[in-house]
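Observation: inputs received (chain + zinc ion).
Thought: call the complex predictor directly.
Action: predict_structure
Action Input:
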Amino acid sequence: MTPGQRAEARIAELGIREPKDLDVEAIAFDAGVSVCYAPLIGCEATLVGFGSRAIATIRNSPVRGRERFSIGHELAHWELHRGKSFRCGVDEPALNLESNVALEREADEFASHLLMPKPLFNPVVRAYKWPTIAQVQDVADTFQTSQSATLIRMAKVDTLPVIVACYSLDKRLWHCAAPHVPRRWRLKSKPDADSFAHELLTRGAPTLVPRKQSADAWFENDDAEKYELLEQCVPGMPGKVLVTLYLTEDEMFDAGYDPDVRWKR
Ligand SMILES: [Zn+2]
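Observation:
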């Protein structure tokens, strides 16, 4: 089983059917992990095990979603990587997407599935056609998760034809596409001057609802100019923007092989 499947199997075993019952501290305690909070310096969370019990220490955060994500992440280390102690630097899956540390990404996958299990998450996402930023925040509030963790899960759960990405003015920091989005679409490595994301980075104006945009503002493929998509974007960490792209045209899924695309994303 993948880390995500293990997390969702745990939720099923516990008989949890409502987002409000996703009490991550109780789930951790049931697995032998006690949670405490402290003003940690230099890291977001630690895990120390003793025999069949462990203590996860979580850095206090004003954002409850980040604390909850850290608990899920430390529980993942306990479940998946037992026998080691951990000092973890991030409480946001977006930050681990910028790095490549395998154990950290496994722990993030477990935490994302634990806090937003597909059987509970999908019906909430499906209630919206193309979720606006406010609607994404409603989903985040329902699951008590951060906005970026929710957006990443929205892509990975593969319900909507969506790409989520994070850009600074000079580069793409990470991106996450729904698995059914054709891999032929090659996302630009910098924000295009015509994109709303560029406008946000240079003029501070967010786009809080999905707006029509030419696909060639986002994809390098020569034929991108033939298509339109929906773009919205909000500020992320300082100097970064979080972009949501909805591929609304069926033709983008039927566009077929692009010989100019090198097969990496
Ligand atoms: Zn970790």
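Thought: report the result.
Final Answer: Residues 73, 77, 86, 88, 104, 107 surround zinc ion (CB under 6 Å). The mean pLDDT is 92.
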